[in-house]
Model the fold of this input.
Amino acid sequence: MSIRKLKPFNPGSRWQSYVVSDEITKKTPEKSLLTKINKTGGRNNYGRVTSRGIGGGHKRRFRIIDFNYSKKNVAGMVEAVEYDPNRSANIALVKYEDGERMYVLAPLDVRPGTKIECGDNVKIESGNSCPLRNVPLGATVYCVELEPGRGAKIARSAGSGIIVAAKDGANIHLRMPSGEIRLVDERCYATIGRVGNIDHENISIGKAGRSRHMGIRPLSRAVVKNPVDHPMGGGEGKSSGGRHPTTPWGKITKGLKTRKKKNRSNSKIIKRRK
Done:
């Protein structure tokens, strides 16, 4: 896996780069594991924009990923590694002993023919899944459940990995990539290793059109808007806003803490990321 930078044969390719992945072995997805995606344009069920800068983009089909660890105590073998347009990580097509096929997130350096297992009594090897109580201290895990049986919620993007820092009774101390240390129930499942496609963060999009293909629309700067559209708009000439940066609704954007003080999960955070 490496980053390939294009030779500039036109202005659009001058800064572009992309990942050359030797892991991907299959280009067409498994039809039985595809479903439809309805595009929202960033709008909710009332038709109001709740996420700005979303719209257009290439048509996609959603790949159904097994985040719920539904194949416990059934061994499987990786048949192929595929690209997924809906996430930064690659996905692995696994065929289990009972004949069923499912997608899982591809761990680092996975190859077709790799055997993976999920259960209480599995080997501590990359790609295998087990409860956190069975994972040794210092090991790296991904696709971690926050509550038993609720499915993997954290460490699912390319290159992600969480370190098992300590064990405290029925709780496990997990050190996040941000430095935050969080308590998680020891019954929660996690996958050993690290998510693959680690060079994804080094990609340079290179041109505006490539962002549009991904469904990202342009957003204009706040200071060039009118006062009716943004608190930082207006003024004579090229003014810089005349106030600290804010959202369109007047809330400070730099340094303001937006986490709820009575959040249920506050008691699970041992150390904040700052």
Observations:
- The chain has one helix and 17 strands.
- The first helix runs from residue 208 to 213.
- The CA atoms of residues 159 and 198 lie 4 Å apart.
